[in-house]
């Protein structure tokens, strides 16, 4: 049985849904239709024809068969003792998802193993290991299992035995190899998350010994420490495996495994084609490409595109606001002591008169001017910001951002300037800033040099690009000539925008390191 929460289809792509097959595929079909997609699949009854399926069954004397020389025989003895003191010899399977999987194991007599722990999980005991034959401990069991036909062409790294004498739960982790988990006896419940959900699982630091494990305690997660984990189960898929079933777990898929009493399983590990074909001399390039792609994805997460419906709602909201008043005539106080810059072109001048702007532009202009006046100290604005090519001066320009903008601001919703600009269509955006140049040049200078955050700088350049695509080269050149002409030092304005844009990308990169590599560089924490 494969079960998904109803919301998972909206949270995950359809292409990531686990399929269950009644017949084992051929080697060619497995490689082309299943392995190549890197999505899990269940094969019903795939290993029922193994000798182990009958010989290892605890209900049919399988524990006597498995009692080989120590240390394995000691474990088998504990399993026998567990069977004698359980209510039935077969154990109960995961018939209901509602059943608690961590309920205490019942007490039993401790003779002849009175000092033995109540629960033992025999994990990853090699039956075959092509990478290190000295590690093989259970080669005598090799003839009881068969490599599934669809894996016959694979170069297997290892084949291992997994066995527990009582209910057991694994940690949440991923494997660096493809994995085929085969249930010989008992039941297992497997919860899986795709690699794309890594961020909500908070992987352990990449430099640690347990770098492939999640740091979130799924039984009782602390959402104050792991806020992204609140949507954990929406991205999960649950599979219940019975004796004879097999589950393909692709490399990189996080999974947590719950095992019922006396469950026996065998798994096969092999390297994926992708990893096998990676040339070592290309590693640094692949690393940079992947980090760049994840950084771009993080930047796009912060700046979502507005839908047409959202834009219509914005327009309606603006009309309501405008009915309560227009631009305050006192908004030009900052500019009274400053000589206005001359604008070139009669047509351009006509467009930038604030009383001739469309309602959306008037509202945006009013909000931007008001924000500057409320947040920036007028005395501070009288000190000019000079541009320079030295590193020290570049750092001082970046320091301007921290005077007014909160250091941990990396959200469009928390940045009023960026939010106003982001909502503007290219034509409206152009008219607003031309009007600012014409009517409030010192306010514009204060906005760019003192109030523009890294998010705001990224938004501003995005809007520049959108506008550039919709106007002629002549209008484009004229706009930037007028825009930067409003500043006493044009290069200081360019530096402020560029430095802010780079700071935005840097914070996105730091978020990627935190989300996917478990490396905390400090600063704002990425949201869900």
TrEMBL record:
Residues 114-285 form the JmjC domain. Pfam families: Cupin_8. Belongs to the JARID1 histone demethylase family. This is JmjC domain-containing protein. It comes from Prunus persica (Peach).
């Amino acid at each position: 049985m494969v079960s998904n929460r109803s919301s998972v289809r909206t949270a995950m792509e359809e292409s990531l849904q686990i399929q269950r097959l009644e017949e084992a595929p051929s080697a060619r079909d497995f490689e082309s239709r299943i392995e190549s997609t890197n999505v899990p699949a269940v094969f019903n009854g795939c290993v029922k024809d193994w000798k182990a399926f009958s010989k290892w069954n605890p209900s049919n004397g399988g524990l006597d068969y498995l009692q080989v020389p120590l240390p394995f025989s000691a474990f088998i003895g504990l399993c026998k003792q567990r069977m004698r003191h359980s209510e039935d010899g077969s154990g109960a399977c995961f018939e209901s998802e509602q059943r608690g999987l961590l309920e205490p194991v019942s007490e039993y007599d401790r003779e002849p193993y009175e000092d033995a722990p109540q629960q033992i999980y025999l994990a990853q005991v090699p039956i075959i290991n092509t990478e290190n034959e000295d590690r093989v401990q259970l080669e005598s069991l090799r003839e009881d299992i068969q490599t599934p036909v669809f894996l016959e062409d694979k170069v297997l790294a290892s084949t291992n035995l997994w066995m527990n004498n009582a209910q057991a739960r694994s940690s949440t982790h991923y494997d660096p190899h493809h994995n085929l988990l085969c249930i010989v006896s008992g039941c297992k419940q497997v919860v899986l998350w795709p690699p794309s959900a890594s961020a909500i699982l908070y992987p352990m630091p990449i430099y640690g010994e347990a770098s492939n494990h999640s740091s979130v305690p799924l039984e009782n997660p602390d959402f104050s420490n792991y806020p992204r984990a609140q949507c954990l189960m929406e991205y999960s898929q649950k599979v219940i495996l019975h004796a004879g079933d097999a589950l393909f777990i692709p490399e990189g898929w996080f999974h947590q495994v719950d095992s019922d009493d006396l469950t026996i399983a065998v798994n096969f590990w092999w390297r994926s084609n992708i990893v096998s074909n990676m040339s070592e001399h290309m590693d640094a390039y692949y690393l940079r490409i992947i980090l760049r792609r994840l950084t771009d994805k993080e930047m796009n997460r912060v700046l979502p595109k507005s839908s047409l419906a959202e834009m219509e709602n914005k327009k309606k909201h603006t009309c309501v606001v405008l009915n309560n008043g227009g631009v305050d005539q006192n908004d030009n106080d900052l500019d009274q002591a400053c000589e206005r810059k001359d604008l070139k072109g009669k047509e351009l001048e006509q467009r930038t008169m604030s009383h001739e702007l469309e309602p959306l532009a008037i509202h945006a202009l009013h909000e931007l001017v008001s924000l500057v006046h409320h947040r920036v100290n007028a005395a501070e604005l009288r000190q000019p910001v000079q541009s320079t090519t030295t590193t020290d001066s570049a750092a001082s320009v970046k320091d301007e951002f921290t005077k007014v903008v909160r250091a941990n601001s990396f959200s469009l919703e928390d940045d009023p300037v960026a939010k106003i600009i982001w909502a503007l269509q290219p034509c409206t955006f152009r008219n607003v800033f031309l009007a600012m140049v014409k009517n409030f040049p010192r306010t514009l200078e204060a906005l760019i040099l003192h109030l523009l955050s890294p998010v705001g700088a990224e938004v501003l350049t995005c809007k520049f690009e959108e506008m550039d695509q919709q106007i002629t080269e002549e209008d484009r050149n004229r706009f930037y000539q007028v825009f930067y002409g409003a500043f006493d030092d044009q290069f200081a304005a360019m530096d402020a925008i560029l430095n802010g844009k780079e700071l935005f990308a840097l914070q996105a990169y730091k978020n990627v390191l935190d989300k996917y590599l478990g490396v905390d560089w400090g600063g704002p924490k990425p949201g869900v």
